[in-house]
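Possible race condition, two jobs.
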Amino acid sequence: MSPHGKYKIELIGNVVHVFPTGGFNEQGIRQLHKEIASIAPKIKPWALLEHPKNIAGLTPEAIEELVSCYKNLSSLNCVVAALQISGAWQGIFETRIVDKVNIPVYLNCDLALLEKQIAQILDNI
């Protein structure tokens, strides 16, 4: 199956920002995370900040792939992940992803709060 889901990625300082839109399948998540790995800082610790808000979605298989990809982030020197996410998706992420990964994962619709939480982690490394 071909990858589904669109996104824009940019590196600002040591934070990888991802702006996904549309519906993602397993292959789309895999493709996205390959690109995240290619743009992320190689030597210094970094953070992942995703901005799906309420304009991106996941198939059940994509959720499982996302768990796998998030588990791999620490091996890429990622020390924290945050998602600017709607309340509807927040519950799914809390129950299906957050407790299964080995880095802090913050979920909120408040971008300023997420940026503050990321900065606190990065500043203490």
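Job #2 (started ~2 s after job #1):
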Amino acid sequence: MERIFRVTLKKEEYLEYLTYYLLHSGRMRGSRWFLLTSVPAVLITGMLLLQYKNVMFITCMLALSVLWVLYGAGGVWKNYIRRKAERYYWPKLNIQEFQEISYRFGPDSVEFKEEGGKVRISYPDFEALVPLKGEFVLYHKKGVILLPYRVFEDEADMKEFLKEYEQRRGAALA
């Protein structure tokens, strides 16, 4: 079965991918570790400097430190990266508009046109399919394909596409 998707990305969809990329790239690993450890370090250092000996107070400070590491830092980090993507990286990309791209998922490969000409990627060249909040990210050896969920008719159509993709990729790798 052959599928053709015509996609014109929206700014929000590209920002979602850019945020995902920044979160998982390791480019800002030092900043992440700083954010993760700063609050517990301040709490524990303050507790030691003020020489509190109350067991309940010490327990509360340690509990706050653990809660920050487990729950607080992750949410703050995601918001920070999203703002960084919007305010710093998006303007640097200088994208004025997105062009429509037509992806043809055939039995052996995926084909689409770029500025350099027609691109054909066989299924074994795909490295991963990552579902995000509003799109699929298909990583391949030459780059990435962003396929928004809105190109599917409904959830059943999306599941059918995933099933076909996995079958074709599995058959190509075998």
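Residues 8 and 47 are 54 Å apart (CA to CA).
Logs attached separately.
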